[in-house]
Structure formats: C-alpha cells, structure tokens
Amino acid sequence: MPAEKSSKIKVIITGGSGLVGMHLTSLLLEEGYTVAHLSRRQDQFGKVRVYRWDPAKGILDPSILDGVDHIVHLAGAGIGDGRWSHKRREEIIKSREDPARLIHSVVTENNLPVKSFVSASGAGYYGMTTSEKIFTEEDPPGSDFLSQVCRRWEDAADLFEHSGIRTVKIRTSLVLDMENPALKKLLLSSSLGFIAAVGSGRQYMPWIHIRDLSGIYLKSITDTSLYGAVNASAPDHVTHDKFMKVLSGVTGKYLAPFNLPSAVLSALYGEMAGVVLKGSRISSGKITGSGFSFRYGRLEEALRDVVADR
User: Fold this and answer.
1) Which H or E run includes 230?
2) How crowded is residue 188: how many other Cβ atoms within 10 Å of its Cβ?
3) Chain segment 5-50, per-residue pLDDT in tens
4) How far apart are CA 238 and CA 94, in angstroms?
5) Which pTM does this prediction carry?
6) What is the rounded CA–CA span in Å between residue 138 and residue 177?
C-alpha cells in the first residue's frame, strides 16, 4: 500500500526526541505529514511543534489531540540505562504503561476519532532465552523481567484495540545506529583497539537498521490491514559470534581470539546481562508478508552503513 503524502494527516509522537523518534519524525516530514511531539519539556524540535504533558501526574490537555489521525507511542525509560533494581523496574514499566493509559482515557472520554495507535515494544517479549526456535508473533511471552515489561507495554496499547482503534505493536530487536547505547556497549573494547564477543557466542542477536525500523513504523501508520504485534527484526539471523566478527570487519578492529566470560557481564549488569548473553531468532515473516521490503537485509551492509555514518 503506498504511503500517504498529505500535510493534512497529523501524527503525534511520544518520546519523539529519542533515537527512533528523531528518525521517524524526519521520515514523516519527508513524506509530507504534519508531526507533533508530546514531551515533559516544551523545547522546540526543528519544524515540529512540541506539546507539554505529564503522564506521571495524569496531565494531558485534550485539545492537543484534537485533529490527530495517528498516535505513535515511543516513550519509556531506557532498558539498559542502569541495573534493574526494584525501583528501576517500576520506573521502566510505568514509563511505558502510564502514558498509553493516559492517552487512551483522553481519546475515549472525548470521543476523538484517532485512526491508529502504534506502540513500541520489544523482541524481549519472547523472553531472554537461547534456543533454535524462530519466534513468530503468535508465540506466547516469556517469564523474565524483560518479557514482563513488553507484556505490560502491549497490554496498555491493547486498550486502544478494545476501543475499536487499529493498534500495532512493534516488537523491536537491537537497533543499528551509532547513537544507540546498546550498540555503543558492544563497541566499548574498540577504544582499546579490539572487538570482543561475550559468553558462549552461540546466542542469536536479532537486529534491525534504524532506517528499516522507521519504515516499519511508517507502514504501520499507512497500511490499514496491518494490526496487532509485528516483529521488527531483519531476516538475516546471526549468532553473537558472527555479529561481532562482522562488526570487527567493518570497523577494522582486531577480533579477540577469546570471548569475555558471562560472569564478567553478570557481575557488571546483573540480570540485565541476559539481554546480550541470551538470544533467539525472530521471524520477519509477518512484516515482509505485508509487502514491506528491508532496505538493509544483510548484517554486513547494515553495519557498514551505520559505521560510515559515524
């Protein structure tokens, strides 16, 4: 289905100043959409109007959403910004759940004719596990904390679906962009002149280029036949060892002949280390079956583009 190109179509984004939000905003503006951001700060963002709200206090002026056609929910505290203490766990969940619930209440109480609600989620929905299974959108969630985050995130998004609004939940893999803190962590040792894999290296590393991820969000907005959970993961399935070998090649850094022990990451990051130490393959069949084509379907070309942008 061709992308809509009209300045009359309005999209509002939560978390618009983040990595994905900035790229998606640029793409939407290029396609002719009117874009606005919801933020706790009212700083101007280029050509985008920024409206102030406060999800923690339940503050959102209904007039802000008047005339909005599509809502994209990207807001949420960083998964990898600190160890998962009890307090941090609550913050991670509430920062995703509360904004969606607030927007839903404002939309429904004021009978606003929103056409779609597109929410971020994570491939962590399936759990931090290493297996030979290729997870599809029909598979059940895992049982660890990261899975719980994604379930709660999606449950909040499903409020819109229950209200008759088309809802899409983007289960995102590792986003390839040099501004992504997760990719920066994988490159930490490069400052010493080498690249080092971690753990067994046999865990899979689902990934997606930032431009393809933005494209999936655009398709989720424009394609009215797309709904429910959608995996955002490139079709090139690679193990961690393979990922780090390709990363070594494109950066020109020496690949260490040893993998850092799992215990080192576990000591540094606790349970959060499982994000890197474990991983399974994620199917891209639903999104490609909808007609979407990956611009960066192979890891080496994707990483070369990312490094070239550095």
Assistant:
1) strand 228-232
2) 10
3) 455 899 999 999 999 999 999 999 999 999 999 998 766 566 799 9
4) 33
5) 0.94
6) 28
Query: 139 in helix, strand or coil?
Result: coil
Residue ranges covered by each domain of the chain: 10-176+207-233+282-295
Any residues with CB less than 8 A from the CB of 151 and at least 6 apart, and which? 125, 141
Neighbours of 134 (CB within 10 A): 15
Angstrom distance (rounded) from CA 212 to CA 133 = 24
Which residue, chain included where needed, has tokens 């807001």?
75
Residues of the chain falling short of pLDDT 70: 1-7, 42-46, 308-310
Quick one: the chain helix, strand, coil %, rounded to 5?
A: 45, 20, 40
* Pairing state between β 70-73 and 10-14: parallel
Query: What's the distance, Cα to Cα, between the start and end of the chain in Å?
Result: 33
Per DSSP, the chain holds a count of helices (H) and strands (E) of 10, 13
CA–CA dist 242, 169 (Å, integer)? 29
Reduced to 3 states (helix: H, G, I; strand: E, B; else coil), residue 232 is strand
> Hey, CA dihedral for 152, 155, 159, 160, is it positive or negative?
positive
Q: Of 201, 199, 153, 207, nearest to 183 (Cα)?
A: 207
Read off φ and ψ for residue 296, nearest 5 degrees. Answer: -120, 85
The answer for residues whose C-beta is within 8 angstroms of residue 167's C-beta and 6 or more apart is: 116, 117, 118, 119, 157, 158, 160, 161, 227, 228
**What fold, for 10-176+207-233+282-295?**
Rossmann fold (3.40.50)
- Which amino acid is it at 91? E
Amino acid (1-letter code) at residue 88: R
Cβ atoms of 19 and 8 closer than 8 Å: no
Residues in the chain: 310
